[in-house]
Amino acid sequence: MAIAMVPKTIGSNPLQVRILHPPPKHMFNFWKQKKQAVGTKELTKQLKSLEDRLEKTTKELAALQEAHKNSLTRVGVVRFNPFGEIGGDQSFSVALLDSRDSGVVITSHYGKEMQRIYAKPLKQGKSEYSLSAEEEEAIRKARNS
User: Is 134 a member of any domain?
Assistant: First the structure.
């Protein structure tokens, strides 16, 4: 039902209210036609299609979750000055870990005359190579991120 306000030229009321049954369709672009009734066979077909899509989506999600376990998602960074003769913390250690604390720790020592870069693999937060205090701190930060 729609109400239309139409100016009135004669009389004491400046507005006249006129009720339109039903409102013209051009007034409401969002009006939709009623859908036809759907039969049991069509509903069963649609339900089966939805179940198949849900099963496929569930499998895809499980595969993504499994792949995500191997993704390097946790990062810890420590900047430091190992040599003392240079101002500023130009050296750094970066730990890149997955959900099982495996990954790599990369350390760069920056000096006046040289720069050295070390990469050490990590398994469950441990390395077969000795770790510096800065590398251990970077691993700790990555675990807590």
Answer: yes
